[in-house]
Amino acid sequence: MNIASKSPSVLRRPAARTAIVAAIIFVVAHVVLLLGITAPDKLYFDEVHYVPAARQMLQPVLEGPILNPMHPPLAKEIIALSIKAFGDVPLGWRYPAALFGALALVAVYLGALALFASQERAIAAVLLAFFNQMLFVQSRIAMLDIFALAFCLFAIAAFIQGFRHARPHSAFALVGLAAGLACACKWSGLFVLATCVAIIAAVRLMQGWRTRFADANAEDWYRPDLWPDFRLPHFIVCFVLIPAVVYLATFVPLYGLSFSDIIEAQRRIFADNTTTAIAGHTYMSSWPSWPFLVRPVWYLFEKVGDDSFAAVVFLGNPLILWPALIALIVALRDWIVARSRDAFLVLAFYLGPYLAWALLPRTLGFIYYYLPAATTASFVLVYALTRKGAPRWLLWAFVAVGCAGFIAMLPITVAAIETSIATFNRLMLFQNWI
Q1: Measured in whole angstroms, how far is the alpha carbon of residue 410 from the centre of its chain?
Q2: How confident is the model at residue 317 (pLDDT cuts 50, 70, 90)?
Q3: DSSP three-state, residue 299
Q4: Which residues contact 131 (CB under 8 A, 6 or more apart)?
Q5: Of 145, 115, 177, nearest to 47 (Cα)?
Q6: What is the DSSP letter of 298?
């Protein structure tokens, strides 16, 4: 039976199933991420910067200089709305992080589904993204990174969807929308947008050179017939105008329609984010070390009893993120040797958001900057573990191992669970993790 002869109800089934699975992922993740989220019952780590900035946004009349001007306002505006809804209490501060953490996992699902066209692989990617620990920890603290991550992942999902179609216009417009929102949370959202632009530039360059593979096939990362109707005006609208308009619109609630004030805000953000910082922070680390989990960031470690401590460490699950480095080599080999489209895309969306940090002149860096790449590493792992010839059980055995590592680390990722010195010493495998 061909597609033309199928009934509308048959055609709607995949979309309905996708929506149902996405809704289940969201609800389950939302509930799990909220468990114990109000511990500690005080501001900790960088919440001391972002929550006061959100509180200031709720003032009827802005008093004094704008707090935390080094980042765009959208994530802080969302935190402010939560404080208004739930009160100036831990739940009010942190609820949006849990909400966007759940949305980020939905975006992982949609991106993996577009990439692999497999429910099984997509669900495995979601579980690996959750069990890698980084997304989990960042979804339970009132910082900006999880908001930018969620929008970036939706941009990636839309781009992968568009990449596979001859007319990617609507999908690429969604990329621009999501990327603009990501940049409105943190400027690091630009890295995903830049990765999308780089992919399109590479394709157009190959087309301009009239490159053709002698043994071309449908799985090639590049084909001469890609996006025949997607032209320069469409590119400008999708990847320049839409992101710019969406981004600038998020400044209006704070600055009104004062063009000069909005431009001055951009100048300040640029100055603060491109100035070489003075090294010396206790938990600082450089970008080459992040994939190896050399230096974690302790968000919280305080005594709450005789031999009881509340601890939150941003580290990452080594049972997932170390093997991901091997998976990267596998994907790189397949891209070069087999010209695999899937390998190309998973490499691009891992390396783009990661290696962009190497271009910045800042000497002050932290492993939580690795969050986007660590999350898209789930795509790389699923790709490598489900290559042709790999046994089906291998993927789920790996997910189970990752889950075991995640559970073992809960005493130092959930403050409400608490930990002892003995457990702390057992989990700290290396001296530089302390």
Answers
A1: 21
A2: very high
A3: strand
A4: 317, 320, 399, 402, 403, 405, 406
A5: 145
A6: E
Structure tokens at 157: 């999902």
In whole angstroms, how large is the CA radius of gyration of the chain?
A: 22
Tell me the pLDDT tens digit for each residue of 261-298: 999 999 999 988 776 555 567 888 999 999 999 999 99
Phi/psi-derived region of residue 210, left when phi > 0, alpha when psi is between -120 and 50, beta in every other case: left
**Which residues, 6 or more positions from 195, have their beta carbon under 8 angstroms from its beta carbon?**
348, 349, 352, 353
CA of 181: how far to CAs of 79, 199, 339, in Å?
Answer: 15, 20, 33
- pTM equals 0.94
CA distance 220 to 223: 7
Amino acid identity, position 205 = L
Segment 335-381, tens digit of pLDDT: 999 999 999 999 999 999 999 999 887 667 899 999 999 999 999 99
Count of C-beta atoms within a 10 Å radius of residue 255: 18
Per DSSP, helices labelled H in 230-370 are 232-236, 242-249, 252-255, 259-274, 318-338, 341-355
Provide the residue type at 351 as one letter.
L
| Per-residue model confidence as pLDDT tens digits over 136-146 | 999 999 999 99
CA distance 226 to 167: 9
Asked if the bond preceding 288 is cis, omega within 30° of 0, the reply is no
Q: Which element (helix H / strand E) includes 153?
A: helix 145-163
Which tokens is 51 given?
Answer: 């929550």
